[in-house]
């Protein structure tokens, strides 16, 4: 069960983080990016967005349990002082008043939950950091998980092109429906998956980064399915938004190495947007995503999201190609 208070708080939180990220993208300077222990990039905006989401949620909901991607420990050392200052400045600007660095680190640290309780939030403050740094697509992804099931997903996609020519939308999935708030619109529009008549008419999307999803395997799968359209390569959970509103029919995320486990914040919000829009999301073996194992999807491998109609056929071919 999700309350209106929770839904509104989540929508407000994601919008606030999206405003912060939009302002920061393209203005990052040397020293505002860090390479984390797993060799992935993180920027001042990733940390600041996590802080403002926590501020927005806790201000409206009181204390929360949150599995957030970013860890304040990455900002703790003495040589990270300028990075900390950059994060604090972004948060202060977004909130409209000066905030102490210690407060900002405390907000970020709220995301340290292990994700093993009955009810928790999960946040990717910037999903697609590599896309963000390239000036391309990224998403702010926030979800609420209850008894291992996603019950609310909010996906902010500040750079996503809309059919009406505007740019940017926030997607909200809850209570049996998915809606989008395109930039500038106050009223939400209902979102639903595409239903191409044949697989040959379908389009699939995948990561821009071939290190995140195997482009070669995807090309082989598409060819066996008779898909002729070029892949729609787009960073972040914007891929889920694309399937949810019918820009594409299939999202393939194919393991690039054995042993990699997907992070829950990379999928919880997006997969629920697709499901509430009428689609189906599983791993590459056709199994449901299992959010009961902490910070990673320990029991799943890769992702296949579709409009639903061809899901079984797609899984069959995915399994053949990956075997
Ligand atoms: N080897 C790998 N396989 C799959 N996903 C990976 C990966 N290495 C990193 N990632 C994840 O890929 C996400 C971006 O996905 P995409 O390629 O769809 O834009 C990253 O999220 P962040 O950008 O939040 O760190 C990161 O968590
Ligand atoms: Mg990251
Ligand atoms: Mg991510
Ligand atoms: Mg991220």
Describe the protein.
By secondary structure, the protein is an alpha+beta fold. It has 2 domains: 187 residues, Fructose-1,6-Bisphosphatase, subunit A, domain 1 (Fructose-1,6-Bisphosphatase, Chain A, domain 1), CATH 3.30.540.10; 124 residues, D-Maltodextrin-Binding Protein, domain 2 (3-Layer(aba) Sandwich). It is 33% helix and 22% strand. It is built from 9 helices and 14 strands. The strands form 3 sheets. The chain has a 7-stranded mixed beta sheet, with helices on both faces. Strands 11-10-12-14-13 form a 5-stranded mixed beta sheet, sandwiched between helices. Strand 5 and strand 6 form a beta hairpin. Helix 1 packs antiparallel against helix 2 and helix 6 packs across helix 9. The mean pLDDT is 96. The site of one magnesium ion has 6 residues, from strand 4.
Question: Can you lay out the helices and strands and say which pair or pack?
Answer:
Blueprint: H1 4-24, E1 33-35, E2 41-43, H2 44-61, E3 66-68, H3 81-95, H4 101-109, E4 119-127, H5 129-134, E5 139-146, E6 149-161, E7 167-174, E8 177-182, E9 189-190, E10 204-206, H6 215-225, E11 232-233, H7 238-244, E12 250-253, H8 268-276, E13 280-282, E14 303-306, H9 311-322
Parallel strand pairs: 3-4, 10-11, 10-12
Antiparallel strand pairs: 1-2, 4-5, 5-6, 6-7, 7-8, 8-9, 12-14, 13-14
Helix pairs in contact: 1-2, 1-3, 2-3, 2-4, 6-9, 7-8
One magnesium ion (MG) binds next to strand 4.
GO molecular function: 3'(2'),5'-bisphosphate nucleotidase activity; inositol monophosphate phosphatase activity; metal ion binding
Keywords: Hydrolase, Magnesium, Metal-binding
Pfam families: Inositol_P
